[in-house]
Amino acid sequence: RQMGEQMATSIINRLTEPQTVEAGGKQFAFVLRPARVYEPYSLTLLKATHSIYRGTDIPKDFRSRVRLENSRTGESREVEIFMNSPLRYGGQTFYQYQMAAGELARRAGQVPSSTLQVVRNPSWLTPYAGCIMVAAGLVTQFMIHLVGFVARRKTA
Asked: pTM of the full predicted structure?
């Protein structure tokens, strides 16, 4: 019962190691890993900008300028991805996740780099539809009360 973290680490390590199975006198080796998907487009980092609040190491802005090239459509354009402003392309959303740029990277001897988090969310419009429904309900409720108020005022 006290092996929680150690046991979880052990299970994860075993999943990434090759597993051998014997079937029909032959041995087969299997490795579990996430599915790899190749897309017809590529992103190339052009510029990584990392600014911090003066006198601190607290991030103020992460910004990546990337070139988006799609071999299938012939599209080639520059896009800027920064905090709270992701790139949506090809059914995927690219969020600015981590950054190694600016003075901190130079002091550490690192090459400027940017890490993007990629998310596929087919229902990304659902929250917007919900907000529209709530707004429509509020407007309807307001109009019903307004009409009732105006009608009562005319009779008085």
From this structure: 0.61
